[in-house]
Amino acid sequence: MQSQLRQKIIVVKAVIHCICILLLVNEYWLALNDGLGADPVEAVLHFTGIGALNLLIISLSITPVIRLFKFTSLINYRRMLGVYSFVYALMHLLSFLAFEVQFDWRLFITEIIERPYMTLGMAAIVILLSLTLTSTARVKRKMGKSWQKLHNWVYLAIILASVHFYMSVKSDVVQPIIYATIVAILLWFRRKKFQKYL
Amino acid sequence: MRIKIPKSWQLTANDVTDESVYRQRRTLLKNMGFLGAGALMSTPAHSLDWFSKSAKKTFITEPLTYLPQSDKQQILTPESKVISHNNFYEFGASKSDPVNNAQSFQTNPWQLTISGQVENKIILDYDDLTRLFALEERIYRLRCVEAWSMVIPWVGFQLSTLLAKAKPLSSAKYVAFETLEDPEQMPGQASRRLGGGINYPYVEGLRIDEAENPLTLMAVGLYGKTLPPQNGAPIRLVVPWKYGFKSIKSIVGITLLDKQPPTTWNQLAANEYGFYANVNPGVDHPRWSQASERRITTGGLLARNRIDTQMFNGYGEQVAHLYKGMDLRANY
Protein backbone atom coordinates (compact mmCIF):
# COMPACT_ATOMS: atom_id res chain seq x y z
CA MET A 1 0.00 0.00 0.00
CA GLN A 2 2.70 2.38 1.10
CA SER A 3 4.85 1.61 -1.94
CA GLN A 4 1.86 1.99 -4.23
CA LEU A 5 1.32 5.49 -2.89
CA ARG A 6 5.00 6.24 -3.33
CA GLN A 7 4.82 5.10 -6.91
CA LYS A 8 1.82 7.28 -7.56
CA ILE A 9 3.63 10.29 -6.14
CA ILE A 10 6.62 9.63 -8.36
CA VAL A 11 4.40 9.43 -11.44
CA VAL A 12 2.58 12.67 -10.61
CA LYS A 13 5.89 14.39 -9.92
CA ALA A 14 7.25 13.21 -13.25
CA VAL A 15 4.17 14.60 -14.98
CA ILE A 16 4.61 17.97 -13.26
CA HIS A 17 8.29 18.04 -14.26
CA CYS A 18 7.36 17.27 -17.86
CA ILE A 19 4.63 19.92 -18.05
CA CYS A 20 6.71 22.69 -16.48
CA ILE A 21 9.80 21.96 -18.54
CA LEU A 22 8.09 21.23 -21.84
CA LEU A 23 6.00 24.42 -21.72
CA LEU A 24 9.18 26.41 -21.14
CA VAL A 25 11.14 24.59 -23.86
CA ASN A 26 8.25 24.95 -26.30
CA GLU A 27 8.00 28.70 -25.66
CA TYR A 28 11.72 29.33 -26.21
CA TRP A 29 11.78 27.02 -29.21
CA LEU A 30 8.98 28.99 -30.86
CA ALA A 31 10.62 32.27 -29.87
CA LEU A 32 13.99 31.27 -31.34
CA ASN A 33 12.30 30.28 -34.58
CA ASP A 34 10.32 33.51 -34.84
CA GLY A 35 7.06 31.70 -34.21
CA LEU A 36 5.66 33.98 -31.52
CA GLY A 37 4.46 36.90 -33.55
CA ALA A 38 6.28 40.11 -34.26
CA ASP A 39 7.89 40.56 -30.86
CA PRO A 40 9.10 37.25 -29.41
CA VAL A 41 10.87 39.12 -26.61
CA GLU A 42 7.63 40.49 -25.25
CA ALA A 43 5.94 37.10 -25.70
CA VAL A 44 8.63 35.28 -23.73
CA LEU A 45 8.58 37.88 -20.95
CA HIS A 46 4.81 37.58 -20.60
CA PHE A 47 4.87 33.80 -20.68
CA THR A 48 7.56 33.37 -18.02
CA GLY A 49 6.19 36.16 -15.81
CA ILE A 50 2.60 34.94 -15.84
CA GLY A 51 3.87 31.35 -15.56
CA ALA A 52 5.85 32.15 -12.41
CA LEU A 53 2.81 33.83 -10.86
CA ASN A 54 0.53 30.93 -11.84
CA LEU A 55 2.87 28.38 -10.30
CA LEU A 56 3.20 30.40 -7.12
CA ILE A 57 -0.58 30.65 -6.88
CA ILE A 58 -0.97 26.91 -7.43
CA SER A 59 1.61 26.09 -4.78
CA LEU A 60 -0.04 28.44 -2.29
CA SER A 61 -3.46 26.94 -3.08
CA ILE A 62 -2.38 23.52 -1.91
CA THR A 63 -2.70 24.15 1.81
CA PRO A 64 -6.23 25.61 1.60
CA VAL A 65 -7.30 22.82 -0.75
CA ILE A 66 -5.99 20.19 1.70
CA ARG A 67 -7.86 21.89 4.56
CA LEU A 68 -11.09 22.14 2.63
CA PHE A 69 -11.11 18.81 0.83
CA LYS A 70 -8.80 16.65 2.97
CA PHE A 71 -6.80 15.89 -0.14
CA THR A 72 -3.62 15.44 1.90
CA SER A 73 -1.38 13.78 -0.71
CA LEU A 74 -1.20 17.12 -2.54
CA ILE A 75 1.35 18.27 0.03
CA ASN A 76 3.95 16.17 -1.79
CA TYR A 77 3.89 18.54 -4.75
CA ARG A 78 3.92 21.92 -3.03
CA ARG A 79 7.67 22.32 -2.85
CA MET A 80 8.36 21.42 -6.47
CA LEU A 81 5.69 23.83 -7.69
CA GLY A 82 7.27 26.55 -5.60
CA VAL A 83 10.69 25.76 -7.00
CA TYR A 84 9.33 25.82 -10.56
CA SER A 85 7.81 29.21 -9.83
CA PHE A 86 11.34 30.39 -9.05
CA VAL A 87 12.66 28.74 -12.24
CA TYR A 88 10.09 30.60 -14.34
CA ALA A 89 10.79 33.86 -12.49
CA LEU A 90 14.51 33.37 -13.08
CA MET A 91 13.89 32.78 -16.81
CA HIS A 92 11.76 35.95 -16.78
CA LEU A 93 14.68 37.92 -15.31
CA LEU A 94 17.31 36.32 -17.56
CA SER A 95 15.14 36.90 -20.64
CA PHE A 96 14.83 40.55 -19.68
CA LEU A 97 18.60 40.77 -19.35
CA ALA A 98 19.45 38.81 -22.48
CA PHE A 99 16.70 39.75 -24.92
CA GLU A 100 15.10 43.01 -23.72
CA VAL A 101 18.14 45.03 -22.65
CA GLN A 102 20.53 42.69 -24.50
CA PHE A 103 23.25 42.57 -21.84
CA ASP A 104 23.41 46.33 -21.46
CA TRP A 105 24.30 45.89 -17.78
CA ARG A 106 24.11 49.58 -17.00
CA LEU A 107 20.60 49.79 -18.37
CA PHE A 108 19.69 46.52 -16.65
CA ILE A 109 20.76 47.80 -13.25
CA THR A 110 19.36 51.32 -13.62
CA GLU A 111 16.03 49.96 -14.85
CA ILE A 112 15.73 47.68 -11.82
CA ILE A 113 16.60 50.55 -9.50
CA GLU A 114 14.63 53.34 -11.17
CA ARG A 115 11.40 51.60 -12.23
CA PRO A 116 9.42 50.86 -9.08
CA TYR A 117 7.61 47.88 -10.65
CA MET A 118 10.92 46.32 -11.59
CA THR A 119 12.33 46.87 -8.11
CA LEU A 120 9.33 45.02 -6.68
CA GLY A 121 9.70 42.18 -9.19
CA MET A 122 13.38 41.87 -8.40
CA ALA A 123 12.61 41.74 -4.67
CA ALA A 124 10.14 38.92 -5.30
CA ILE A 125 12.78 36.97 -7.21
CA VAL A 126 15.33 37.43 -4.42
CA ILE A 127 12.81 36.03 -1.93
CA LEU A 128 12.00 33.07 -4.18
CA LEU A 129 15.72 32.44 -4.64
CA SER A 130 16.31 32.28 -0.90
CA LEU A 131 13.33 29.93 -0.48
CA THR A 132 14.58 27.70 -3.29
CA LEU A 133 18.09 27.52 -1.83
CA THR A 134 16.66 26.45 1.53
CA SER A 135 14.13 24.03 0.10
CA THR A 136 15.94 20.75 0.68
CA ALA A 137 15.04 18.53 3.62
CA ARG A 138 18.59 18.74 4.95
CA VAL A 139 18.64 22.53 5.09
CA LYS A 140 15.18 22.53 6.58
CA ARG A 141 16.34 20.27 9.45
CA LYS A 142 19.42 22.39 10.01
CA MET A 143 17.47 25.66 10.10
CA GLY A 144 14.98 24.44 12.66
CA LYS A 145 12.41 27.08 13.63
CA SER A 146 13.90 29.82 11.52
CA TRP A 147 13.04 27.82 8.36
CA GLN A 148 9.33 28.46 8.74
CA LYS A 149 10.02 32.13 9.49
CA LEU A 150 12.01 32.46 6.28
CA HIS A 151 9.44 30.59 4.22
CA ASN A 152 6.62 32.83 5.43
CA TRP A 153 8.26 35.43 3.19
CA VAL A 154 6.54 33.69 0.29
CA TYR A 155 3.45 35.73 1.16
CA LEU A 156 5.38 38.93 0.62
CA ALA A 157 6.76 37.49 -2.63
CA ILE A 158 3.32 36.79 -4.07
CA ILE A 159 2.11 40.27 -3.08
CA LEU A 160 5.16 41.86 -4.71
CA ALA A 161 4.70 39.74 -7.84
CA SER A 162 1.07 40.69 -8.28
CA VAL A 163 1.75 44.39 -7.67
CA HIS A 164 4.62 44.12 -10.18
CA PHE A 165 2.16 42.70 -12.72
CA TYR A 166 -0.42 45.42 -12.01
CA MET A 167 2.12 48.23 -12.36
CA SER A 168 3.63 46.84 -15.55
CA VAL A 169 0.51 47.17 -17.69
CA LYS A 170 -0.51 50.36 -19.47
CA SER A 171 -4.23 50.43 -18.87
CA ASP A 172 -5.60 46.90 -19.33
CA VAL A 173 -5.77 46.21 -15.64
CA VAL A 174 -8.52 43.56 -15.68
CA GLN A 175 -6.16 40.58 -15.71
CA PRO A 176 -3.89 41.93 -12.95
CA ILE A 177 -6.97 42.68 -10.84
CA ILE A 178 -8.20 39.09 -11.26
CA TYR A 179 -4.79 37.86 -10.13
CA ALA A 180 -4.74 40.26 -7.18
CA THR A 181 -8.16 38.98 -6.11
CA ILE A 182 -6.97 35.37 -6.20
CA VAL A 183 -3.90 36.34 -4.20
CA ALA A 184 -6.07 38.16 -1.67
CA ILE A 185 -8.22 35.03 -1.23
CA LEU A 186 -5.10 32.88 -0.70
CA LEU A 187 -3.83 35.31 1.91
CA TRP A 188 -7.23 35.50 3.59
CA PHE A 189 -6.91 31.77 4.32
CA ARG A 190 -3.76 32.58 6.26
CA ARG A 191 -5.26 35.53 8.13
CA LYS A 192 -4.55 33.95 11.53
CA LYS A 193 -0.88 33.74 10.63
CA PHE A 194 -0.77 37.46 9.93
CA GLN A 195 -2.68 38.55 13.01
CA LYS A 196 0.44 38.83 15.10
CA TYR A 197 1.91 41.30 12.61
CA LEU A 198 -1.17 43.51 12.59
CA MET B 1 28.80 64.24 -61.81
CA ARG B 2 25.47 64.35 -60.12
CA ILE B 3 25.75 64.51 -56.39
CA LYS B 4 22.67 63.33 -54.69
CA ILE B 5 21.93 64.68 -51.23
CA PRO B 6 19.06 62.75 -49.73
CA LYS B 7 16.73 64.59 -47.41
CA SER B 8 17.58 63.41 -43.96
CA TRP B 9 14.18 61.83 -43.37
CA GLN B 10 15.03 59.57 -46.25
CA LEU B 11 17.23 57.68 -43.87
CA THR B 12 20.93 57.20 -43.89
CA ALA B 13 23.13 54.83 -45.78
CA ASN B 14 24.22 52.51 -43.00
CA ASP B 15 22.60 49.19 -42.19
CA VAL B 16 21.11 48.52 -45.57
CA THR B 17 18.69 45.66 -45.77
CA ASP B 18 15.69 45.70 -47.98
CA GLU B 19 12.93 43.23 -48.44
CA SER B 20 14.78 41.17 -51.05
CA VAL B 21 17.73 40.67 -48.73
CA TYR B 22 15.30 39.83 -45.97
CA ARG B 23 13.66 37.22 -48.21
CA GLN B 24 17.01 35.68 -49.12
CA ARG B 25 17.84 35.38 -45.49
CA ARG B 26 14.56 33.68 -44.81
CA THR B 27 15.19 31.25 -47.65
CA LEU B 28 18.63 30.54 -46.31
CA LEU B 29 17.31 29.92 -42.83
CA LYS B 30 14.60 27.69 -44.22
CA ASN B 31 17.12 25.71 -46.22
CA MET B 32 19.18 25.26 -43.12
CA GLY B 33 16.10 23.92 -41.42
CA PHE B 34 16.02 26.72 -38.89
CA LEU B 35 12.44 27.77 -39.27
CA GLY B 36 9.92 25.63 -37.49
CA ALA B 37 6.35 25.32 -38.63
CA GLY B 38 5.52 28.12 -36.24
CA ALA B 39 7.47 30.61 -38.29
CA LEU B 40 5.27 30.01 -41.29
CA MET B 41 2.04 30.87 -39.58
CA SER B 42 0.87 34.40 -40.01
CA THR B 43 -0.58 34.75 -36.54
CA PRO B 44 1.45 33.96 -33.47
CA ALA B 45 1.32 30.41 -32.20
CA HIS B 46 0.59 30.11 -28.53
CA SER B 47 1.56 27.20 -26.38
CA LEU B 48 -1.22 24.65 -26.33
CA ASP B 49 -3.25 26.69 -28.76
CA TRP B 50 -4.54 23.87 -30.90
CA PHE B 51 -7.93 25.16 -31.86
CA SER B 52 -7.54 28.65 -33.26
CA LYS B 53 -5.99 27.78 -36.58
CA SER B 54 -9.27 27.46 -38.44
CA ALA B 55 -9.43 29.33 -41.74
CA LYS B 56 -10.13 32.95 -40.89
CA LYS B 57 -11.36 35.78 -43.02
CA THR B 58 -8.59 38.14 -44.11
CA PHE B 59 -9.18 41.79 -44.91
CA ILE B 60 -8.49 42.47 -48.60
CA THR B 61 -6.01 45.28 -49.28
CA GLU B 62 -5.69 46.90 -52.72
CA PRO B 63 -2.52 47.97 -54.55
CA LEU B 64 -2.01 51.74 -54.67
CA THR B 65 -0.56 54.04 -57.28
CA TYR B 66 2.07 56.26 -55.70
CA LEU B 67 5.45 57.89 -56.09
CA PRO B 68 7.95 55.50 -54.52
CA GLN B 69 10.62 56.84 -52.19
CA SER B 70 13.82 56.71 -54.19
CA ASP B 71 16.24 56.00 -51.37
CA LYS B 72 15.33 52.75 -49.70
CA GLN B 73 18.23 52.80 -47.33
CA GLN B 74 16.68 51.54 -44.13
CA ILE B 75 16.14 48.06 -42.85
CA LEU B 76 12.42 47.78 -43.28
CA THR B 77 10.48 45.94 -40.64
CA PRO B 78 9.03 42.90 -42.42
CA GLU B 79 5.47 43.46 -43.61
CA SER B 80 4.29 40.39 -41.70
CA LYS B 81 5.42 42.03 -38.44
CA VAL B 82 4.08 45.49 -39.28
CA ILE B 83 0.60 44.02 -39.79
CA SER B 84 0.60 41.63 -36.83
CA HIS B 85 2.05 43.72 -33.99
CA ASN B 86 -0.31 46.59 -33.32
CA ASN B 87 -1.50 48.76 -30.50
CA PHE B 88 -5.10 49.43 -31.54
CA TYR B 89 -7.15 48.99 -28.38
CA GLU B 90 -10.41 49.33 -30.31
CA PHE B 91 -9.71 45.76 -31.40
CA GLY B 92 -8.20 44.55 -28.12
CA ALA B 93 -5.38 45.56 -25.81
CA SER B 94 -2.85 42.85 -26.62
CA LYS B 95 -0.55 43.29 -29.61
CA SER B 96 -2.01 40.33 -31.49
CA ASP B 97 -5.66 41.22 -30.87
CA PRO B 98 -6.04 43.76 -33.69
CA VAL B 99 -4.91 41.38 -36.44
CA ASN B 100 -7.25 38.73 -35.08
CA ASN B 101 -10.28 40.93 -34.43
CA ALA B 102 -10.21 43.51 -37.22
CA GLN B 103 -10.35 41.44 -40.39
CA SER B 104 -14.05 41.98 -41.10
CA PHE B 105 -13.86 45.74 -40.44
CA GLN B 106 -15.80 47.77 -43.04
CA THR B 107 -13.83 50.71 -44.45
CA ASN B 108 -16.03 51.43 -47.45
CA PRO B 109 -18.19 53.55 -47.23
CA TRP B 110 -16.15 55.93 -45.08
CA GLN B 111 -16.54 59.59 -44.22
CA LEU B 112 -13.78 61.88 -43.04
CA THR B 113 -14.94 65.36 -42.06
CA ILE B 114 -12.61 68.35 -41.80
CA SER B 115 -14.39 71.08 -39.91
CA GLY B 116 -14.14 73.63 -37.11
CA GLN B 117 -12.28 76.87 -37.73
CA VAL B 118 -11.96 76.47 -41.49
CA GLU B 119 -13.23 78.39 -44.46
CA ASN B 120 -14.18 75.24 -46.35
CA LYS B 121 -15.68 72.40 -44.46
CA ILE B 122 -14.68 69.24 -46.34
CA ILE B 123 -16.16 65.77 -46.32
CA LEU B 124 -14.06 63.06 -47.95
CA ASP B 125 -15.58 59.74 -48.92
CA TYR B 126 -13.73 56.45 -49.28
CA ASP B 127 -12.56 57.01 -52.86
CA ASP B 128 -11.42 60.57 -52.10
CA LEU B 129 -8.92 59.24 -49.56
CA THR B 130 -6.74 57.66 -52.23
CA ARG B 131 -7.67 59.74 -55.30
CA LEU B 132 -7.98 63.35 -54.22
CA PHE B 133 -4.26 63.82 -53.54
CA ALA B 134 -1.16 62.44 -55.24
CA LEU B 135 0.18 59.65 -53.08
CA GLU B 136 3.80 59.19 -52.18
CA GLU B 137 5.84 56.69 -50.22
CA ARG B 138 7.52 57.73 -46.99
CA ILE B 139 9.79 55.33 -45.16
CA TYR B 140 9.62 56.40 -41.54
CA ARG B 141 10.83 55.11 -38.23
CA LEU B 142 8.00 54.48 -35.80
CA ARG B 143 8.99 54.67 -32.13
CA CYS B 144 6.57 53.33 -29.55
CA VAL B 145 6.66 54.71 -26.00
CA GLU B 146 7.00 51.08 -24.88
CA ALA B 147 10.54 51.27 -26.34
CA TRP B 148 10.15 49.14 -29.44
CA SER B 149 10.41 50.56 -32.91
CA MET B 150 9.83 49.70 -36.55
CA VAL B 151 10.68 51.08 -39.99
CA ILE B 152 7.59 51.26 -42.14
CA PRO B 153 7.09 52.25 -45.79
CA TRP B 154 3.90 54.30 -45.58
CA VAL B 155 1.94 55.56 -48.57
CA GLY B 156 -0.04 58.74 -48.17
CA PHE B 157 -0.18 62.50 -48.59
CA GLN B 158 0.94 65.41 -46.45
CA LEU B 159 -1.63 66.58 -43.95
CA SER B 160 -0.69 70.14 -44.96
CA THR B 161 -2.20 69.66 -48.44
CA LEU B 162 -5.48 68.55 -46.93
CA LEU B 163 -5.49 71.43 -44.47
CA ALA B 164 -4.70 73.89 -47.27
CA LYS B 165 -7.79 72.68 -49.09
CA ALA B 166 -9.90 73.36 -46.00
CA LYS B 167 -8.33 76.82 -45.52
CA PRO B 168 -7.88 77.14 -41.76
CA LEU B 169 -8.99 80.48 -40.28
CA SER B 170 -6.31 82.56 -38.61
CA SER B 171 -7.87 81.71 -35.26
CA ALA B 172 -7.11 78.00 -35.76
CA LYS B 173 -4.18 77.05 -33.53
CA TYR B 174 -4.63 73.32 -33.02
CA VAL B 175 -5.82 70.30 -34.99
CA ALA B 176 -7.89 67.63 -33.24
CA PHE B 177 -8.37 64.09 -34.60
CA GLU B 178 -10.97 61.48 -33.79
CA THR B 179 -11.11 57.73 -34.47
CA LEU B 180 -14.29 56.00 -35.57
CA GLU B 181 -16.59 55.00 -32.73
CA ASP B 182 -18.46 51.84 -33.68
CA PRO B 183 -18.73 49.29 -30.85
CA GLU B 184 -20.41 46.79 -33.17
CA GLN B 185 -17.32 46.59 -35.32
CA MET B 186 -14.78 47.42 -32.64
CA PRO B 187 -15.00 44.90 -29.80
CA GLY B 188 -12.64 46.92 -27.62
CA GLN B 189 -15.16 49.76 -27.56
CA ALA B 190 -17.95 47.36 -26.62
CA SER B 191 -16.05 45.69 -23.79
CA ARG B 192 -13.99 47.44 -21.14
CA ARG B 193 -12.06 44.24 -20.60
CA LEU B 194 -11.00 43.93 -24.25
CA GLY B 195 -10.55 47.65 -24.80
CA GLY B 196 -8.11 48.20 -21.97
CA GLY B 197 -10.39 50.59 -20.10
CA ILE B 198 -9.57 53.70 -22.13
CA ASN B 199 -12.17 56.22 -23.22
CA TYR B 200 -13.60 56.06 -26.72
CA PRO B 201 -13.64 57.51 -29.25
CA TYR B 202 -9.85 57.84 -29.27
CA VAL B 203 -8.82 61.48 -29.72
CA GLU B 204 -5.47 63.07 -30.50
CA GLY B 205 -4.18 66.50 -31.36
CA LEU B 206 -1.34 68.51 -32.84
CA ARG B 207 -0.42 72.17 -32.79
CA ILE B 208 -1.19 73.57 -36.24
CA ASP B 209 2.48 74.12 -37.10
CA GLU B 210 3.17 70.49 -36.23
CA ALA B 211 0.26 69.41 -38.40
CA GLU B 212 1.53 71.50 -41.30
CA ASN B 213 5.10 70.19 -41.05
CA PRO B 214 6.08 68.43 -44.29
CA LEU B 215 6.79 65.22 -42.36
CA THR B 216 3.25 64.89 -41.05
CA LEU B 217 1.56 62.30 -43.20
CA MET B 218 -1.98 61.11 -43.70
CA ALA B 219 -1.28 57.46 -44.51
CA VAL B 220 -3.67 55.40 -46.59
CA GLY B 221 -1.31 52.51 -47.22
CA LEU B 222 1.82 50.61 -46.34
CA TYR B 223 4.07 48.37 -48.38
CA GLY B 224 2.39 49.70 -51.53
CA LYS B 225 -1.10 48.57 -50.64
CA THR B 226 -4.04 50.08 -48.79
CA LEU B 227 -3.86 49.85 -45.00
CA PRO B 228 -5.12 46.74 -43.28
CA PRO B 229 -7.60 47.62 -40.51
CA GLN B 230 -5.21 46.71 -37.68
CA ASN B 231 -2.90 49.45 -38.98
CA GLY B 232 -5.66 52.05 -39.08
CA ALA B 233 -7.55 51.59 -42.36
CA PRO B 234 -8.69 53.42 -44.30
CA ILE B 235 -6.74 56.52 -43.19
CA ARG B 236 -4.48 57.33 -40.28
CA LEU B 237 -2.03 59.93 -39.10
CA VAL B 238 1.73 59.36 -39.05
CA VAL B 239 3.87 61.80 -37.03
CA PRO B 240 7.30 60.18 -37.13
CA TRP B 241 9.06 62.34 -34.53
CA LYS B 242 6.47 61.59 -31.85
CA TYR B 243 5.67 58.39 -29.96
CA GLY B 244 3.41 56.01 -31.83
CA PHE B 245 0.27 56.71 -29.85
CA LYS B 246 0.05 60.20 -31.41
CA SER B 247 -0.42 58.59 -34.83
CA ILE B 248 -4.16 58.09 -34.49
CA LYS B 249 -5.83 55.42 -36.61
CA SER B 250 -9.06 55.07 -38.65
CA ILE B 251 -9.80 58.80 -38.57
CA VAL B 252 -13.34 60.09 -39.12
CA GLY B 253 -12.96 63.65 -37.87
CA ILE B 254 -10.38 66.42 -38.11
CA THR B 255 -11.34 69.62 -36.31
CA LEU B 256 -9.43 72.88 -36.28
CA LEU B 257 -9.59 74.60 -32.91
CA ASP B 258 -8.37 77.74 -31.19
CA LYS B 259 -7.36 75.82 -28.08
CA GLN B 260 -5.47 72.64 -27.25
CA PRO B 261 -7.69 69.58 -27.63
CA PRO B 262 -7.79 66.74 -25.09
CA THR B 263 -5.83 63.61 -26.05
CA THR B 264 -6.76 60.09 -25.01
CA TRP B 265 -3.64 58.87 -23.22
CA ASN B 266 -3.10 62.23 -21.60
CA GLN B 267 -6.60 62.06 -20.14
CA LEU B 268 -5.93 58.57 -18.84
CA ALA B 269 -2.54 59.23 -17.23
CA ALA B 270 -1.38 62.82 -17.58
CA ASN B 271 1.83 62.18 -15.66
CA GLU B 272 2.88 59.52 -18.16
CA TYR B 273 1.65 60.78 -21.52
CA GLY B 274 1.97 64.43 -22.41
CA PHE B 275 0.32 66.35 -25.23
CA TYR B 276 3.54 66.67 -27.22
CA ALA B 277 4.90 63.13 -26.83
CA ASN B 278 8.03 64.00 -28.80
CA VAL B 279 10.52 61.14 -28.90
CA ASN B 280 13.14 62.23 -26.40
CA PRO B 281 15.87 59.89 -25.12
CA GLY B 282 16.53 62.29 -22.25
CA VAL B 283 13.06 62.16 -20.71
CA ASP B 284 12.01 58.75 -19.41
CA HIS B 285 8.52 57.40 -19.12
CA PRO B 286 7.91 56.17 -15.56
CA ARG B 287 8.01 52.56 -16.76
CA TRP B 288 10.31 52.58 -19.77
CA SER B 289 13.69 54.15 -20.25
CA GLN B 290 13.53 56.10 -23.50
CA ALA B 291 17.30 56.17 -23.97
CA SER B 292 17.29 53.13 -26.22
CA GLU B 293 14.84 50.94 -28.09
CA ARG B 294 14.45 47.52 -29.64
CA ARG B 295 14.13 47.76 -33.40
CA ILE B 296 11.77 45.10 -34.63
CA THR B 297 13.33 43.72 -37.79
CA THR B 298 13.83 40.16 -38.83
CA GLY B 299 14.74 37.26 -36.66
CA GLY B 300 13.51 35.83 -33.43
CA LEU B 301 14.63 36.00 -29.88
CA LEU B 302 18.33 36.32 -30.63
CA ALA B 303 18.13 39.37 -32.88
CA ARG B 304 20.66 41.91 -31.60
CA ASN B 305 18.54 44.91 -32.22
CA ARG B 306 18.85 47.29 -29.28
CA ILE B 307 19.82 50.75 -30.52
CA ASP B 308 20.12 54.22 -29.07
CA THR B 309 17.06 56.40 -29.44
CA GLN B 310 17.61 59.67 -31.27
CA MET B 311 16.15 63.03 -30.25
CA PHE B 312 12.90 63.60 -32.16
CA ASN B 313 13.36 60.02 -33.42
CA GLY B 314 16.14 61.36 -35.67
CA TYR B 315 13.96 63.99 -37.36
CA GLY B 316 15.34 66.95 -35.41
CA GLU B 317 16.53 68.72 -38.54
CA GLN B 318 12.95 68.99 -39.74
CA VAL B 319 11.16 69.64 -36.48
CA ALA B 320 13.48 70.98 -33.75
CA HIS B 321 12.59 74.58 -34.69
CA LEU B 322 8.97 73.93 -33.72
CA TYR B 323 10.01 73.62 -30.08
CA LYS B 324 12.58 76.39 -29.83
CA GLY B 325 12.58 77.82 -26.33
CA MET B 326 10.22 75.18 -24.97
CA ASP B 327 11.13 73.10 -21.95
CA LEU B 328 10.67 69.59 -23.32
CA ARG B 329 10.93 68.14 -19.82
CA ALA B 330 7.83 70.06 -18.77
CA ASN B 331 6.15 69.76 -22.19
CA TYR B 332 6.72 66.04 -22.64
TrEMBL record, chain A:
Entry GO CC: plasma membrane
Biological processes, Gene Ontology terms: protein repair
Cofactor(s) needed: heme b; FMN
Transmembrane regions: 12-31, 43-69, 81-99, 119-138, 150-167, 173-189
Domain Ferric oxidoreductase: 50-161
Subcellular location, record wording: Cell membrane; Membrane
Swiss-Prot/TrEMBL keywords: Cell membrane, Electron transport, Flavoprotein, FMN, Heme, Iron, Membrane, Metal-binding, Transmembrane, Transmembrane helix, Transport
Entry note: cofactor: Binds 1 heme b (iron(II)-protoporphyrin IX) group per subunit. Binds 1 FMN per subunit.
Membrane association type: Multi-pass membrane protein
Gene Ontology MF: a single term: oxidoreductase activity, acting on diphenols and related substances as donors
HAMAP family assigned to the protein according to its UniProt record, in alphabetical order: MsrQ
Family in the record: Belongs to the MsrQ family.
General function of this protein: Part of the MsrPQ system that repairs oxidized periplasmic proteins containing methionine sulfoxide residues (Met-O), using respiratory chain electrons. Thus protects these proteins from oxidative-stress damage caused by reactive species of oxygen and chlorine generated by the host defense mechanisms. MsrPQ is essential for the maintenance of envelope integrity under bleach stress, rescuing a wide series of structurally unrelated periplasmic proteins from methionine oxidation.
Oligomeric form and interacting partners: Heterodimer of a catalytic subunit (MsrP) and a heme-binding subunit (MsrQ).
Descriptive protein name: Protein-methionine-sulfoxide reductase heme-binding subunit MsrQ
Organism: Thalassotalea piscium
Gene it is expressed from: msrQ
UniProtKB/TrEMBL annotation, chain B:
Cofactor(s) this protein requires: Mo-molybdopterin
GO molecular function: metal ion binding; molybdopterin cofactor binding; oxidoreductase activity, acting on a sulfur group of donors, quinone or similar compound as acceptor
Amino-acid positions noted as binding Mo-molybdopterin in the UniProt annotation, renumbered to this chain: 86, 89-90, 144, 179, 231, 236, 247-249
Cofactor note: Binds 1 Mo-molybdopterin (Mo-MPT) cofactor per subunit.
UniProt-listed InterPro entries: MsrP, OxRdtase_Mopterin-bd_dom, OxRdtase_Mopterin-bd_sf
Sequence ranges assigned to domain Oxidoreductase molybdopterin-binding in this UniProt record: 105-265
Protein name: Protein-methionine-sulfoxide reductase catalytic subunit MsrP
EC number annotated for this UniProt entry: 1.8.5.-
Pfam families found in the cross-reference section: Oxidored_molyb
Domain of life where this protein originates: Bacteria
Catalysed reactions, as listed in the record: L-methionyl-[protein] + a quinone + H2O = L-methionyl-(R)-S-oxide-[protein] + a quinol; L-methionyl-[protein] + a quinone + H2O = L-methionyl-(S)-S-oxide-[protein] + a quinol
Family, as annotated: Belongs to the MsrP family.
Key word Heme present: no
Subunit architecture: Heterodimer of a catalytic subunit (MsrP) and a heme-binding subunit (MsrQ).
Keyword Transmembrane helix in record: no
Keyword terms, alphabetized: Metal-binding, Molybdenum, Oxidoreductase, Signal
Species for this entry: Thalassotalea piscium
Database matches in SUPFAM superfamilies: Oxidoreductase molybdopterin-binding domain
Enzyme class, first EC level, given as a word: oxidoreductase
GO BP annotations, alphabetical order: protein repair
Function text: Part of the MsrPQ system that repairs oxidized periplasmic proteins containing methionine sulfoxide residues (Met-O), using respiratory chain electrons. Thus protects these proteins from oxidative-stress damage caused by reactive species of oxygen and chlorine generated by the host defense mechanisms. MsrPQ is essential for the maintenance of envelope integrity under bleach stress, rescuing a wide series of structurally unrelated periplasmic proteins from methionine oxidation.
